[in-house]
Amino acid sequence: QVQLVESGGGLVQAGGSLRLSCAASGRTFSTYHMGWFRQAPGKEREFVAAITWSGGRTYYADSVKGRSTISRDNAKNTVYLQLNSLKPEDTAVYYCAARTTYSIGLYYRGEEYNYWGQGTQVTVSS
Asked: What distance in Å separates the CA atoms of residue 91 and residue 10, rounded to the nearest whole number?
């Protein structure tokens, strides 16, 4: 069982930055591929970014590519999402998720992830 706890959300003006963190419990964090998703009010959950267990490969949604960086520190059982040049349309609850499968195929599908955090709110004002 893995527990994920996000933090770092908040209210920021357009053009600003935030760094989200997701702390994981358990001794096997370094074996999990990790992802970030978000859900805005009235919209479906959408993929934001993913990273392989080693951190060697990263993937981004087109909507955040070039403005965000996903990273991880396996010694600290933590995955990060740096968000820059924030826009009002980035406003959403951001969730981190872990998957235990060997492959990171279909990394953009929430259904491929086994564990989810409770989310952290990001609000970008114009």
From this structure: 10
User: Helix (H) and strand (E) counts for the chain?
Assistant: 0, 11
Query: Could you report the per-residue pLDDT of 34-88, keeping only the tens digit for each?
Result: 999 999 999 999 999 999 999 999 999 999 999 999 999 999 999 999 999 999 9
Nearest in space to 107 (alpha carbons), one of 44, 39, 19, 37: 37
The answer to whether the Cα torsion of 30, 20, 68, 45 is positive or negative is positive
pLDDT at residue 27 tops 80: no
| DSSP per position, 6-36 | EE--EEEETT--EEEEEEE-SS-GGG-EEEE
SS3 of the chain: helix, strand, coil, percent, to 5: 5, 45, 45
Mean pLDDT, all residues of the chain: 95
Residue in the structure block whose two tokens are 């760094």: 19
